[in-house]
Amino acid sequence: MTAQTLREWFTTFNAQYFGNTLPEPHFVVNHAKRTLGQFSCHKVRRGLLPGRWKTTDYTIKVSEFYHTSDHDRQSVLLHEMIHFYIAYTQTRDTSAHGKVFRQWMQRLNADGWNITITSRNAMLATVPTTDKQQYLLLAIRLSNGKCYLSVVNPAYRHHLEQMIHNHCQADEFHWLRTNDSRYAGWSAVRTLRGRHITQDEWERLMSETVIL
Predict the structure, then answer these.
(1) Residues 201 and 158: beta-carbon distance below 8 Å
(2) From CA 15, how far away is CA 29, in angstroms rounded?
(3) Residues 6+ away with beta carbon under 8 Å from 5
(4) Over pLDDT 70: what percentage of the chain?
(5) Running DSSP on this structure, what letter comes out for residue 52?
(6) Average pLDDT, whole number, for the chain?
(7) Residues 6 or more apart in contact with residue 38 via CB below 8 angstroms
(8) For residues 124-145, b (16+ Cβ closer than 10 Å) or e, as one string?
């Protein structure tokens, strides 16, 4: 992971979730043990009247000290982007991880992410492990009856959905979420490609997996 990697992820998420509201911050990849990510900015007064201020000098830091997946690091980045959005829009919240933050967190986690709120002392214990990782699945049944299944990079969910509507001869498709470790070895796709599954596998998937 590099600062350029964070920049590319940020650009995608800024468009996908934040309406391209956020200016590009300074990105830092570090090896911090006690924080997986950090957002910081400077708050300066604007004018002479009390209560008028603006934020500048935005920085997002993400640690690569722990061996975690891109999905986990993207979730950390999204955590910091929520802080960024709240600060940039000067939205009032009840605390650092208050009501507004939690609403954003729940909204993004419903899209397959794993954003959490942890204390610094609990960081090591709460780093997501492979067997608990959440996977975003795309199940497609074509007009010819063939069924396909993919593990999808959540950042490309909306892009793939547009491709399905515009180019894919699909009778139906479903987004699903699971922490089943059988998908740990699957590559997270960014394009419409998947593994062929049988009709029985399709039915079992629909009955056993959380459909989004």
Answers:
(1) no
(2) 22
(3) 29
(4) 86
(5) -
(6) 82
(7) 32, 59, 60, 61, 80
(8) eeebbeeeebbbbbbbbbeeee
**CB neighbours of residue 44 within 10 Å:** 10
From the number of C-beta atoms within 10 Å of its C-beta (0-12, 13-18, 19+), residue 87 rates as: middle
Q: Say whether 92 sits in a helix, a strand or coil.
A: coil
Confidence band of 123 (pLDDT split at 50, 70, 90): very low
Reading the block at residue 90, the tokens are: 């000067």
pLDDT, tens digit (0-9, with 9 covering 90-100), for 48-88: 555 567 788 899 999 888 777 888 899 999 999 999 999 88
Angle between helices 3-17 and 70-88 (to 10 degrees): 60
Best-predicted range by mean pLDDT among 42-46, 119-123, 153-157?
153-157
**What are 201-212's pLDDT values in tens digits?**
888 887 766 666
- Domains recognised in the chain with CATH numbers: 3-128 (3.30.2010), 131-211 (no CATH)
